[in-house]
Amino acid sequence: RPVVGVLALQGAVREHVAMLERAGARAVPVRRPAELSEVDGLVLPGGESTTMSRLLENFGLLEPLRERIAGGLPAFGSCAGMILLARQVLDGRPDQRQLGGLDVVVRRNAFGRQVDSFEADLPFAGVSGGPVHAVFIRAPWVEKAADGVAVLATVAGPADPDGEPDGPRVDRIVAVRQGAVLATAFHPEITGDERCHRLFVEVVREA
Ligand code: GLN
């Protein structure tokens, strides 16, 4: 079984561990550089991306993690994890640090201007067996994706993030893959459906 770490500084660590185990991996929490060096892949859970980037620095994980991701470590970020992996953040905080790995621009709290959370059933490329039930909690969206980034799922969202709640809607990108890096704007760990984690464990096996 591949060893998949779950970054355990903040967020839904236990839920990700349980889903990874169900998806066929051996899941271990990661808090120190030594633990990071032992994993074949890493999940970055949701939480609060500015807090998490500060914790990454405090725990001495920021640079080692950047290096491993640049070296091809498979990574799966959900929500705040997606924000951390993005090349650039809109509406971020000045002290927000990026890990890189995903050549995308994300908008933080993008849907949150109108609603703090919502749920939707989304067709998800690479996941069979019907749509994935997606729970969004103060979620980002991907505003721009480079050519090498595959869009795996979209959801209807406001055309203007600062506009009226019932204004025009467009498809917003909420799941992407670039090489061995996956990210979802929603929380696949809390719905009891492990298919997104299975997809990631497959990516880890292939890497
Ligand atoms: N809004 C949070 C952030 O900016 C992300 C929310 C989440 O992970 N559920 O980091």
From TrEMBL:
List, alphabetically, the CDD domains matched.
GATase1_PB
The organism sits in which domain of life?
A: Bacteria
Q: Which GO terms describe its cellular component?
A: cytosol; glutaminase complex
Q: Which GO terms describe its molecular function?
A: glutaminase activity; pyridoxal 5'-phosphate synthase (glutamine hydrolysing) activity
Keywords assigned by UniProt? Glutamine amidotransferase, Hydrolase, Lyase, Pyridoxal phosphate
Return the EC number: 4.3.3.6, 3.5.1.2
InterPro entries xref list: Class_I_gatase-like, PdxT/SNO, PdxT/SNO_CS
Q: What protein family is recorded?
A: Belongs to the glutaminase PdxT/SNO family.
Q: What does this protein do?
A: Catalyzes the hydrolysis of glutamine to glutamate and ammonia as part of the biosynthesis of pyridoxal 5'-phosphate. The resulting ammonia molecule is channeled to the active site of PdxS.
State the protein's name: Pyridoxal 5'-phosphate synthase subunit PdxT
Q: Which gene encodes it?
A: pdxT
